[in-house]
UniProtKB/TrEMBL annotation:
Gene3D superfamilies, per database record: P-loop containing nucleotide triphosphate hydrolases
Organism listed in the record: Pseudoroseicyclus aestuarii
Gene Ontology biological process terms from the UniProt entry: cytochrome complex assembly
Keywords: ATP-binding, Cytochrome c-type biogenesis, Membrane, Nucleotide-binding, Translocase, Transport
Full protein name: Heme exporter protein A
PANTHER family: ABC TRANSPORTER I FAMILY MEMBER 1
């Protein structure tokens, strides 16, 4: 039973068509790694699947309320503490904060800290911890390991493997190998023709 299926999808950014004819299936319990040069449209594709912008055409099944999106920024609220940020997201998604999220994302010692005082990597761990709070099975991840050191990258990769082993699904744009046994999808063949004609660097 496929968890995430995309068919004949076309998407644009800033009014310029970037990708067209995108199609793939990510079965339950597996991940798919998105590949492509800078600017090809990985973030745009993830934002479209997350419902943050409309597709130009095509169909998507298995995203919507099933999916959680983690962008580069992570959506961390600077004035709230780590605990308050997690509680805020839990309220938003109608869930409870699982106690296991603190050790899983190495946040136990930072619970009371205002997020604005966290280091970049700590803030990133908090942004990723949000995924565990949503309780959603389909994860749309945009460069999840940016700012993370090797230890934190391994910690997150381990958490993600656990999510997949529990039947979850992930679509991941990453330039950093996460050690997942996952197929890769190169977006180069899906470049929209208009973009190819106007951008000589693509
Ligand atoms: N708000 C915007 N308005 C106009 N163009 C934009 C906007 N945001 C992004 N773009 C452009 O859309 C294209 C696709 O950007 P996108 O962020 O999806 O690429 P990407 O594949 O994720 O790149 P990277 O690997 O650098 O993160 C780029 O050429 C980018 O400059």
């Amino acid at each position: 039973m496929p968890a995430l299926t995309v068919s004949a999808l076309a998407c644009a950014r800033g009014g310029i068509p970037l990708l067209e004819g995108v199609g793939f299936t990510v079965p339950e319990g597996t991940a798919l790694i998105l590949r492509g040069t800078n600017g090809i449209g990985k973030t745009t594709l993830l934002r479209t699947l997350a419902g943050l912008q409309p597709a130009l055409s095509g169909t998507v099944t298995g995203a919507g309320d099933e999916a959680a999106y983690a962008s580069h920024e992570g959506g961390v609220k600077a004035v709230l503490s780590v605990e308050e940020n997690l509680a805020f997201w839990a309220a938003l998604y109608g869930t409870q904060v699982p106690e296991a999220v603190y050790p899983a994302f190495h946040l136990a010692a930072l619970r009371a800290r205002p997020a604005g005082t966290l280091s970049a990597g700590q803030r990133r761990r908090l942004g990723l911890a949000r995924l565990a709070v949503t309780g959603r099975p389909v994860l749309l991840l945009d460069e999840p390991t940016v700012s993370l050191d090797a230890g934190s990258t391994a910690l997150f990769a381990g958490w993600l493997r656990g999510h997949l082993a529990a039947g979850g699904t992930a679509l991941v744009a990453t330039h950093v190998p996460l050690g997942l046994e996952a197929p890769e999808l190169d977006l180069a063949p899906f470049r929209a023709r208009a973009e190819t004609l106007t951008d000589p660097f693509l």
